[in-house]
Batch of 3 targets.
Target 1
Amino acid sequence: MPLLESSSYRPPVWLRNGHINTIYPYYFRKKSLLPYKRERFSTPDNDFYDVDWLLSENKKRLCILLHGLEGSSGSQYIRGNAKTLTNHEFNIAAINFRSCSGEINRQLKMYHSGFTEDLHHFIQNVEANFDEIFLCGFSLGGNVAMKYAGDGVYTLSPKIKAIAGVSVPCDLRAGSIKIMERKNHFYETKFLETLLNKVKIKHQHHPDRIDIRWLSKVKTLWDFDDRFTSSLHGFQDAEDYYHTCNSKQFLSHIKIPALIINAKDDTFLPESSYPYDEAKSNENLFLMTPKYGGHVGFTTFGTDSYWNETNVLKFFMQYSMI
């Protein structure tokens, strides 16, 4: 499908910087006070994940929101999208990946860029209550959504009408190398702080199954994926994990309308995470690559909704029959 027009995002001059647009909403966006209602879902492997609901009077249309690395339903981008969608009669289910709801999960494994098991489990549990389902993932969550739609591991519910991904690192290996660049050291350090803390907590629960002597040797996300993510989720190493879970290889197989919004100044994304060829060859895949926006940024003034939120809403409404 031809690339969608992306020039409508025109931030102020001072926001035409990928780092500033990434950081600004994290620290300065007014937090939407949303009346979430939390529900815990038990998994077949004796674990759990928590989902925060926003239910409208119209119970027919559901959007499932998937957060990024070490995010949660409380992340500003999840709240912003939830508010925009609920204003247009979408019910919201903001999934907190395992270990991300404020309580560590029971099992050794947590979540990762290709972990679609809980997403499918959730859809199976709730699809009977809604007529239409939409998925929207951010960063890591965007990779999860695209992989789920294209890898063929699960049969998709016919109620899923469209999906969207914002700031999607669809080439995981190249993305892991990209975030090791000096300019991204601040972000990588922040991610590692919380990830390594979770490993320490898990060691307390499973002292015989987690060796924490290597923690001091983890300096990058690649190191973490090589030593922890891979071993606890059945991959040989980081290379195997990235190869197996990167969604780019599955984009050509997506058979439902799918939108990817990746800003050209996203400091996290390598060139290979802009799937121009895949979008041109698959009539179901739509791609927007605005010049500015940062990583899950797209700061917008004068309206409650950010630019990416408005475009995701427009895209979903095209495919809603309600």
Target 2
Amino acid sequence: MCSHPKTCASYLLGHFYYFSTMWLIILVLAIITRIALGANRYSRFYEKNHGNILENSSSLRFSNRHFTCSLPHHVSRHASIWWFFKAVQ
């Protein structure tokens, strides 16, 4: 595959950094969108049922709890996809 070990290592490292940066950006964007969408959804729900959202902090607690509970599942799903791609390549 590689005639020069040094170039091979730098090539692999370059690919690793490229992919890890790409996945990091995707993950950050996904988390931001999820928080934004979740905040909108929960605030609308609580404004409709409980009046002003600022007077009721339980909605924020609920959305945080929901987010932290669903996060490990989300990450494990991405990790399995990542390992699948690595196996295919």
Target 3
Amino acid sequence: MKIKLGVRGNSDAVNAIIIKMDDLMLVTADNIFLIGEENRNKMGKNIVALLDSLSKEHEIEIGETVVPMIESELTLQEGTLNKFINKE
């Protein structure tokens, strides 16, 4: 199964992270723009852990332009999500 990661919002204000699996779409419940630094840090760590776990059995795809937006909004270290960038 291919799992895609995306964002809702734009480069100025990311509102939600979207995880799409076949016909299922998961959207973060909290508005990332409003939740505060501590909750963004926690969400970032949790999403990376989830993607690492899912990547063992499934293909993860994140667009090259989306990675910097997610890393910036969730205060992840630059390059954390690079292993999931779709090279096609």
